[in-house]
């Protein structure tokens, strides 16, 4: 007999990083019961981005745009205690933002009239049952709910295939783990695979730890993230561009020449999801193949102080950016011998590194993620990857699509898992609006059930 769910059954949220925590907080404020599952309690309310313990890792968004709530844009600033003179252009350590989220979560636990439970159980399966869902835990127990939300965040990165035979002492798969700097000769040459924001974090940590050896950062295009302006551009709302494809690219370039690229990119931010979804799969794939690296370095910027320090390290010759392809990487005694081809040439170059550090970023292909819950859902056909294999396929209401393309009425996804469909959904301002929308959808559904 199928179980009947009522409006008092909780929403089951799997994943207690930024996305899951903020959804639970929003649901609590709306009086909707929920259960937040996070197996690693040290990651609760932090996730990958805000779980860093390094104070040199700053937010790459100004504090004035980091409120957890769209209807209260000054909330984070009040929590920090900033004066108005400090508000507009301050970049604060990411670890402080993790503390901010945890404090809001604890307040929600203590003040809300809705039931909000936090559990450290490992959810290994979700099954739709009647008009509800059941979470299956690793110990065999089950937890019933009215709906479920996958908020699994980023998955651990994988080394490129050419590096997977290198011993772990010479190749670091996950730069967020402690062994990145462990037992490292301060004069040793290092190779970073990837030149984006992750590589900047690693470079800053190496610099703070006193590393003196040469650091080479290699990616196909060798692009460095750009810097924010010392003071943020005041961007007035503008209508979305009417053109698409190559014409859109030309329009943005022309706008950048007129008002500056910072302003031109920031004008697009309210429209990026709609613009992404207005292009078909073929055009999206072309963007990912040819333009994504350029978009990323202009859109996801560095705090000015970090950009200044990075430029100093480059000018001193301690950090070198290279554009090219990895050809071979093998162990050579206590070093890694690397062969690579500079971009646009047939020339082969070589270098040696005491350690190769993976800075390519989190794994996006859910079929490759070592997550038992996703493996179970994929095997049963309950979910499917998005077209570009950057996450899960979801509909406009964030409901997961099954292998036949049908949207589930009870299982949703938020955060980076929805990147392939939403595109700009890894930064706080974007996720903040997404969970705001979903919380209200779930609250409205509950009201209809109760009525």
User: How large is the radius of gyration?
Assistant: 23 Å
- Give me the side-by-side strand order of the main sheet: 8-14-9-10-11-12-13
Mean pLDDT: 88
Question: How many DSSP E strands?
Answer: 16
Q: What is the molecular shape?
A: globular
Q: Return residue spans where pLDDT drops below 50 for at least 5 consecutive residues.
A: none
- Give the strand content: 15-25%
Q: How do the SSEs run, as a string of H and E?
A: EHEHHHHEEEEEEEHEHHHHHEEEEHEEHH
The biggest beta sheet, please?
7 strands, mixed
Oligomer: single chain
- The helix content is 25-40%
Number of H- or I-type helical stretches: 14
Q: Kindly name the structural category.
A: alpha/beta
Question: How far is the first residue's CA from the last residue's CA?
Answer: 24 Å
């Amino acid at each position: 007999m199928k179980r009947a769910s009522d409006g008092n059954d909780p929403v089951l949220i799997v994943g207690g990083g930024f996305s899951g925590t903020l959804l639970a907080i929003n649901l609590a404020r709306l009086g909707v019961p929920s259960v937040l599952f996070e197996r690693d309690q040290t990651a609760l309310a932090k996730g990958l981005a805000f779980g860093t313990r390094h104070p040199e890792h700053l937010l790459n968004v100004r504090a004035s745009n980091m409120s957890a709530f769209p209807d209260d844009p000054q909330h984070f600033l009040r929590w920090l205690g900033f004066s108005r003179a400090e508000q507009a252009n301050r970049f604060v350590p990411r670890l402080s933002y993790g503390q901010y989220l945890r404090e809001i979560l604890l307040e929600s636990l203590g003040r809300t009239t809705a039931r909000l439970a936090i559990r450290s159980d490992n959810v290994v399966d979700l099954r739709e049952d009647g008009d509800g869902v059941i979470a299956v835990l690793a110990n065999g127990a089950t937890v019933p709910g009215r709906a479920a939300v996958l908020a699994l965040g980023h998955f651990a990165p994988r080394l490129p295939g050419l590096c997977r035979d290198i011993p772990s002492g010479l190749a670091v798969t996950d730069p967020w783990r402690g062994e990145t700097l462990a037992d490292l000769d301060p004069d040793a040459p290092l190779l970073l695979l990837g030149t984006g924001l992750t590589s900047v974090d690693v470079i800053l940590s190496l610099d703070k730890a006193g590393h003196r050896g040469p650091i080479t950062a290699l990616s196909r295009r060798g692009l460095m993230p750009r810097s924010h302006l010392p003071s943020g551009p005041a961007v007035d709302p503008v209508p979305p561009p009417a053109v698409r494809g190559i014409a859109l690219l030309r329009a943005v370039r022309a706008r950048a020449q007129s008002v500056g690229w910072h302003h031109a990119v920031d004008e697009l931010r309210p429209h990026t999801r709609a613009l992404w979804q207005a292009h078909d799969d073929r055009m999206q794939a072309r963007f990912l193949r040819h333009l994504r690296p350029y978009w990323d370095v202009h859109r996801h910027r560095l705090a000015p102080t970090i950009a200044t320090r990075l430029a100093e390290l480059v000018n001193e010759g301690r950090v070198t950016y290279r554009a090219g392809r990895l050809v071979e990487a093998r162990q050579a005694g206590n070093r890694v011998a690397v062969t690579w081809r500079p971009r646009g040439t047939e020339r082969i170059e070589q270098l040696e590194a005491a350690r190769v550090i993976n800075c390519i970023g989190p794994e996006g292909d859910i079929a490759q993620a070592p997550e038992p819950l996703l493996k179970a859902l994929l095997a049963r056909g309950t979910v499917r990857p998005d077209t570009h294999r950057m996450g899960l396929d979801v509909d406009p209401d964030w409901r997961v699509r099954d292998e036949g393309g049908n949207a589930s009425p009870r299982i949703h996804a938020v955060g980076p898992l929805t990147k392939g469909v939403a595109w700009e959904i890894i930064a706080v301002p974007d996720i903040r609006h997404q969970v705001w929308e979903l919380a209200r959808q779930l609250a409205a559904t509950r009201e209809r059930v109760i009525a």
